[in-house]
Amino acid sequence: MIAPRPTIEEILRAVAISDNEPARQALVSLQTAPAVYIRLLSGTAAWVAAISLIACLALAGLLQNDTKGASLMLGLCCCLGAVGLRWVTRESESTFFQQLALSVSIAGQNLFFWSLWAQTNSWSSTALGGALLQLGLLVGYPDALHRFLSASLASLLLGVWLHHLFPVLPLHLVSVPLLAGAIALSHWEPEIEIRPWAAFRAPVAFGLILALFNVLIFARWAPETQAPLLGLTTMGLCCLVGGLGWLVQRECDISSSWVRWGLPLGLLLLGGLTWSTPGVVAALGTMILAFHRRSVLLLGLGAIFQALFLVALYYDLSLSLLLKSTVLVTSGLLLLGIRMRMLALGARP
Amino acid sequence: MPAAYQTSGLVVTLVAGLMLRLHKHYALNMHDPLLIPATPARIRRLHAAGVLSSEQLASAMRLAVASPQPAAWVRFLSALLLIVGGALTISGTLYFFAYNWDELGRFHRLGLAAGWILLTAVGAWRMGLEALSGRVCLMAASVGVGILLLVYGQTYQTGADDWELYAYWAGLIIPWVLASRMPTLWLLMLGLVNLACTLWRFQTFGKLDLVETLWIPVSLALLNGLAWLGWEALGPARSWMQVRWMPRLLLVMTLLMLCGPSVFWVLEPAEVGLSGLVALLLLAFVSAVLGVRSWRGGLDLFLPTAAVGAVLLVLDCFVWRVLFEHLNLEEVGFLLLALILIGQAAVAVKGLTRLQQRQPEEALS
Fold it and tell me: By three-state DSSP, how is residue B162 classified?
């Protein structure tokens, strides 16, 4: 479904470079990052190794009767050591030390969280402390996968901290700034990617999306009293997806009045129908964002969560089975009708 | 026992033959680095190498990450609306019948299920299997066959075992699967065959011990492995079979089925017997062949990565047994386990990254 990116050759032709040989030489020597599934393998192994390390510390008695916060300091030291080790080995090809740094970092973070919770017995302090640690790791640990996880955890923990600070604000409302951040980082990708801090863009954008879905899943267990505020979150997300649609239209130079009016009307309808499940609009926005910036990974993430939230929508609709089926059939036929109209207006692919 | 050895030998010969055929289809695929997609990292690399000036960098970056053309957006939105709209309509219709199910008579129930199949099959025929809508209709018709069999079984209490339902379902949709040229429909049929085989073993032979139970995943691994090899061997000549997710999924299904008995054999060899050993040997054989094929180039890097993951899992269980059962280590054992895990993951990542560097198509796309 994703449109392919232009090739290097097409780009060179477009910027009027005729001699392609230097480009070929530059790309042949480019050290490509490991594929996503290799990173996944590495990350899983690091997690298991981290659990073993923590088990070793626990069996050695380092985590028992921890009244003076020794394990907190140990966790911090592990994180600092991991950052130092990763910085020292960032140019080297030693995967052993990189894997060691990743495992020690994960073990350190777990120790830190556990110890902070044990010391303070407070969600608010643990969330704030954890968020600060993750922000430090986001800046300090020079690895895209680690930065992605740190960005996701930091934003999630900041949301939890804000929620505990202002209990009147539901956690799911945090999803609005999270989606806004992801849209900004993705839409302005060309401008950000030529800045010195370009390495942070993709991990942070993906991390925000992962945090967004986590927040919306947690929202399902929000107190009943905050349920009406779900509509507010859905409205905010609809506005953001509408804004994204407008940005896409501007970039693609689409001036069709059908699209100009159809998008807000469609979003209004979708928002009204799914007000109790804001995840549906959020997943739709993610899928549009993924297509806009040709990210297969993001599209897959959006599709999986869209399926999950559509199932959740069924359970969230406080209607009888008959009315539920009517709502589902009506909205489905409406979407199919919009598709037919879109293709009939000469836009047939 | 000799029969089991003969069967294993026959299977290994068959797998080796198919592997050889797979080898012939893969050619070393060296691509021109200029024909790979332009990602921000590659554009920045060209700038760092002095190929692009600062002004050209900004233009190149805008072009590389530009939003797709309006026609591509229409295709995307069309597919999205069709899938979500179709799913909502189908689920809403099912809930409507669920609401009225108790009031419906047996003929109405059967008529509804048969009508569903007829409607969707005619829809697929009218729209054609080249269109996404036609393929969605055929998928719905294939699911409808299962619903019809289920309703029939419930209504007339045929006394048939569950495995028969899945076996008949898989058998009845074979013509559509063959005609459809749809990987998802092939996957549905393979899933049904897996389910039917598993249930057949349990429902026909009664209570099974651990050794007999573990032959089930080994048999399913062979079935899924043959499907994977067949897909890889026949895929290059057929455009609709060139999706990579299907053979990847088939290999993962094969490896998962082999991992279970292998882990059991590593942890409790005396209790598991031959099934675990056969699974372990098959796992080692498939991994070795994938490793050799990858080193020679041209193989999808996901395949050796999945095999490495499976081998590491079994190896770590062996290390666990040695450290905690034979050597009786405690905290030192966990420390050693962590270091071994880190070491083997580092070796695996290093090796796979080298393979990626050797395979420009995978590494650079």
Answer: helix
Structurally, how many domains does chain B consist of? Answer: 2
User: Is B325 a domain residue?
Assistant: yes
For position B23, what pLDDT does the model report?
A: 45
Best to test chain B binding among A1, A7, A10, A11 (most B CBs inside 10 Å): A11
**Chain A nearest-CA residue for B343:** A96
Report if residue B280 sits inside a domain.
Answer: yes
- Please name which of B77, B141, B81 lies closest in space to residue A331, comparing C-alpha atoms: B81
Is A333 close to B69, i.e. CB distance below 8 A? no
Assigned domain for B122 exists: yes
Q: Quick one: B238 and B277 in the same domain?
A: yes
CB A99 within 8 A of CB A82: no
Kindly provide the b/e burial profile for residues B257-282, where b requires at least 16 CB atoms within 10 angstroms of the residue's own CB. bbbbbbbbbbbeeeebbbbbbbbbeb
Helical ranges in A121-275 per DSSP H: 123-140, 144-165, 175-187, 189-192, 201-218, 230-252, 257-273
Give bridge partners of residue A7 from the DSSP assignment: B37
pTM, whole model, 2 decimals? Answer: 0.79
B342 with B242, same domain? yes
Domain that holds residue B233: 226-365
C-beta of residue B265 within 8 angstroms of C-beta of residue B314: no
Chosen domain end from B177, B207, B237: B207
Secondary structure (3-state) at A330: helix
Complex ipTM tops 0.90: no
Residue B287 lies in a domain: yes
Asked if residue B214 has pLDDT above 70, the reply is yes
Domain residue ranges in chain A = 320-349
